[in-house]
Amino acid sequence: MNKNKGLQVGAIICFVVSILMISCQKEQRGILENDQAPTPLLLKIPPHFPRPIEMPDNPLTVEGVHLGRQLFYDPLLSANMQVSCASCHHQERAFTDGVALTAAGVSGKKLERHSPTLINLAWTDQGFFWDGGAKNLESQAFGPLTHADEMGMSLVTLANRLMASELYVNLFQQAFNEKPSAQGAAKALAQFQRTLISASSRYDSYRSGQDMQALTAGEQRGMHLVIQKCGGCHRGELFTDNAFHNNGIDDDFTDDSNEWIHRGRYRISLNPVDLGAFKTPTLRNVTRSAPYMHDGRFTSLDQVLQHYRSGIKHRPVTDRLLYDQNENPGIAMSDGEMNDIKSFLEALTDEIFLNETNFSNPHKNENRKK
């Protein structure tokens, strides 16, 4: 072999070795080759809505949202492979489940709080769960995933299951250019849930000026009454302040459980003023999300309105928004006003959201590779 050929062969060998070393390094870091970057996804923000919360550490992508939707409906994420996120969050019920305290989890035991709606979460900025115990949707996901009475899942087992699925290996590569992991699953679930935007009700048609006849006279009266009497907490186009209030449904906050589940926001803040305070739910699609309150104790909107009219319990921690100018608890409402309010709440029902195929179960009638 002459000197020039020897140099050429040596250069080729060095190049091949370098490529192999880089490939090994990428494999050790858990990075899979993917020449195509995920496609950025911009939320369609209704013009009358505020700007959503920016999440630079987990930007929305088409592939990430697609993966999150797959995971949301997949019982593979539970210990017994029978429970998915959708087991407690049904689209047609505004992503709640229609029962006060569900027993749909892996243990079969009733949970101690009502399954909340999943609506317009891209605007939530003060924490998730009824007490705000999770800072963001990414961290929130680990609660139901690992809770013994919900999905009861080991995060190590979750990662192993996802790694064993050809489908998920491919989807994680497309979404994050990495191997499946519990952390990646949480990010994908968060991305999907941030797309669950409800802004196509008859109220929205009226509010945006598209159809000024969309609301009846009674519904318009109800709209003004909600702003006047309920707007302290159910404010703005989101119909929630995303904050925490003691709304006077209890006057005894003793809690023998280790988790202080019934003490509300106090469980997180340890601030006495937060005792019995729970997160304000949105009023959007409220006629489809019964029962109501953090424990689902009220089965109808009539019961809810009656509570605010005459059932508020007076305690030092009861929110002052629920008192009149003479410091008497209760929000004054006539029977007629209550009927107008209920009429308007029906106008907040978003049939497009409740039937949007991009939010529905992608596994139906699907032959998947496992």
Automatic annotation (TrEMBL):
Pfam families: CCP_MauG. The keyword Oxidoreductase applies. Keywords: Heme, Iron, Membrane, Metal-binding, Oxidoreductase, Periplasm, Peroxidase, Signal, Transmembrane, Transmembrane helix. Residues 217-349 form the Cytochrome c domain. Gene3D superfamilies: Cytochrome c-like domain (1.10.760.10). PROSITE patterns: CYTC (PS51007), PROKAR_LIPOPROTEIN (PS51257). It is found in: Periplasm. The chain crosses the membrane at residues 6-24. One of its GO terms (molecular function) is peroxidase activity. InterPro entries: Cyt_c-like_dom (IPR009056), Cyt_c-like_dom_sf (IPR036909), Cytochrome_c_Peroxidase/MauG (IPR051395), Di-haem_cyt_c_peroxidsae (IPR004852), MauG/Cytc_peroxidase (IPR026259). PANTHER family: CYTOCHROME C PEROXIDASE-RELATED (PTHR30600). This is Cytochrome-c peroxidase. It comes from Sphingobacterium anhuiense.
